[in-house]
């Protein structure tokens, strides 16, 4: 492949002086024949042609592996002895030719110079089946093969090249021609091992062709080619320079098979594609490189970052050995930079003691291994995350060496600042970037743009003390204005301890406002404890429970499982936020514990807004349409209570029959008296037995004032689709029941006491509005009831009302009593059933009723047993009364609020039942 072609005029001058001939090696495999012996070259492969009588600079010399003996066909490795100076037009190795070129006659330097033929074909050709070895057999016996720069000779290697001095004289394959004039093609291999002084296999710094591009050099390794370092000096130039001695295209490979020497200059300021460290060695990165695509550290290998600064990676890190920092290096870390392909960091090995780990603006990195970061000096290096980082269940663990590392998670920001460019080092305006100021937005991995700044250039090293940054690519020209941009980080974790489990550091953790998060594993501690800034987009792919109150400014997406807001937390959606993915199978649970319940807050809205809330078992969403822009707080919990609060007195099953067994707590934040349309939805599981029979017109919404339920107002309802809408100007707790009626009246107590020849029934009721009367029903078997009388309701909702009824037909037998509560509109609910069984102990009584910490039974004769049952019929307390005792007390401090039945059994096994109520 010809990179440059001389003009026809120049070619004409060349061929006026020389007559080109093409010759094949016929000198066999001997190591004594000279490369320049005329008899070793013939115009015919079988030696039947004309031999090369006189060396000619225009000749083409071919080693053909099918026959290296001419008239006596043979194959094998050709080892001709090199001479002091030999100039040819082209050198070709083909058809399995294996050639070793070495100087073996006298000390000094033997150079085979390839001038080129000026045509389109390459001047040094080694096909995929052939190999060339350039070596030395004695000290000061040097052997070079050189492509002419003057005549712009080119070469392409498809096979194998080995350059080794064997620790003796120098061996080199020198390309001093144009950019990319020596090409190692896909599948080619080049082995390097030069150990003598200045033994650089591709020459020295004079070899460098151009500094105008970060990919500008005479030697080009194409995708699929491999350069093997087998020891000795660097395959690069002998001086530190930003201009590379060779270019590695994407997909090419550089393999280190030996420990690095004392003056290797392997990595310093160089650009690589794939780099692999062989098994069983220890290697230190002598200085920071400018790019590595994929870094592979093999089993049994230790690879240390041994200089300060960032080590950029634009591909993957595969670590099956150990990667860390060499001792006393305080700020060496990988910087992941790629805007094209996802990256990963992992392997079966360990990452131990890198100072940090940064993810650049455009990078998309998956962590497949735990990373230990920190420093062995008293310094706190910082890991910057401004791209996508999926930690999965792994940890960026800043346990450190001597000191822990800091972690800074960045959000989108772009700043333009001035600076002075020298090579690819920029000294920024000190007023915008210094040890104490960073308004320039400088971070490892930040994208940099500007005049003559190449695309996809990133900050790969920084030093705030000197206000300078290092760019990942050499600019193509002058630049004084630099725009520094960070992306919005996306942190994805499957850690069951959430963000703090993923970033485990005793250093400082900072999170910019607007950072995005994805949670892929169930956790009860998702959010970083130290992060007080609003989150950006948040995606929940598992069941999550909050561990703190948190603000969200982006899209909250529910994908799998419920998001539970802990009872002490508020999840606040800013006015810029929204919710996606909510449904009956995944929604936001407002957790209840004691008197508190979790809260979902949505800021500053005026159009209809859905709050996709529910209990652990039921989806109970709320839609609010305010008349003015406002912020609303919403909670919901199961279980109707007398005061509409989570720890209020629970209504019984009969009372819940004509209601929905849930309470919604809704409050605006600013416009307290504004009108808002409130739409509530429920499920069949919470629907009362009578409520199922209601027409849409019978359904209403009621509000609790903190003590009592107020009358349900008429609403727009759909009992098939299970939702209802009503407008309110006052807020608090809301429930669903029968229109123009209360949620069922709350019975505080209901008791029966045997008195002489009859039974006195007593009850107290709260929340009375629109109640017609109480019908007293009696049964002798607990199943079939008959009406024995009624008492009109007083309908005083502001206080607890007391009622009584005397059953003068009570006899010495067991009787069952209940109350049928009839509303003004004819709807009916029932109290619980109480039992009275007594023939002789008609004076028994229990007081106080309601009771608190103790309950006293009077009218005893001694020897009775007192049993206390809860509302479900479970025996809770029991006490045997001593003989000749007329009253006995029972400690009830441990009992919860609610109704209880006290049964007194005398020595004749006759039972009296009393209904009592514990108030607190």
UniProtKB/TrEMBL annotation:
Organism: Parasediminibacterium paludis
InterPro entries: Ig-like_fold (IPR013783), Secre_tail (IPR026444)
Name of the protein in question: Beta strand repeat-containing protein
Domain Secretion system C-terminal sorting positions: 847-911
